[in-house]
Specification:
A hairpin with a 6-residue loop joins β9 and β10. This protein has no helices and 11 strands. Strands 1, 2, 3, 4, 5, 6, 7, 8, 9, 10 and 11 form an 11-stranded mixed beta sheet that branches. It has one domain: Immunoglobulin-like. 0% of the residues lie in helices and 36% in strands. It has 217 residues and is mainly β.
Length: 217
């Protein structure tokens, strides 16, 4: 029997995200997230490979992410000038969680973070905010230097830490809006791309109605 719609298209899931209890007044490096911050395994609903695991934490001053990718045989391929096609993590966030719109608002954000590709020897991580195609409102892009990153590239994979300060998230107000629209893609040209739910046959990269929700608890 032919499957008309992938399972991930049939559900709108809210993922619980825990608060970071202790954080310095000035964050200078991405916080380390333990297993308590791991996103629930949505396994059978997700499309593509399952090479990476993602942890997420929140604080009044921003959002923290930690990605672990294992099982590679080659170094990740990362190009500062081609971030959309490079190995790494792409994150979409809607600080208003408006899931009944099909074109991005000024509260929707798309970030690309790579474990390498910056500096003269391309050994440092890359972080950029990318405009969302067909957006109904022009969102102001943040200064990429505000996004904090660290990474460790190993023979079998890499780890990637990310801190998105509130200054990079237009409309971020956890007290009054504790629900965020959310989607991610782990781009991996060796192991295969890993999607949060639906795959590339749907325009998740520009349609917030296809995103899931992060519940800031």
């Amino acid at each position: 029997m032919t499957e008309l719609l992938p399972p991930g298209f049939l559900f709108r899931v809210a993922l619980p995200v825990k608060r970071l209890a202790k954080l310095p007044a000035e964050v200078v490096t991405p916080p380390t997230l333990n297993a308590d911050f791991a996103l629930p395994n949505v396994g059978e609903l997700a499309q593509g490979s399952h090479a990476g695991s993602l942890r997420v934490g929140w604080h009044d001053s921003g959002l923290a992410f930690q990605l672990e990718v294992q099982g590679r045989k080659t170094a990740p391929r990362c190009d500062y000038g081609q971030v959309l096609n490079s190995d790494g993590l792409q994150i979409w966030i809607d600080t208003r969680n408006t899931q009944n719109i099909h074109r991005a608002s000024k509260f929707c954000h798309h970030f690309c973070v790579l474990p390498s590709g910056a500096s003269r020897d391309r050994s440092l991580p890359v972080a950029k905010q990318i405009p969302i195609a067909r957006a109904r409102e022009e969102a102001t892009l943040c200064d990429s230097r505000l996004i904090l990153t660290n990474s460790e590239v190993r023979d079998t994979g890499y780890s990637l830490g990310i801190w998105l300060p509130a200054e990079c998230l237009n409309g971020y107000a956890p007290d009054s809006n504790p629900h965020l629209g959310f989607y991610f893609l782990i781009r991996d040209r060796e192991l295969g791309d890993q999607y949060l739910s639906i795959g590339a046959e749907f325009p998740f990269d520009q349609d917030p109605s296809l995103w899931w929700t992060l519940d800031l608890i």
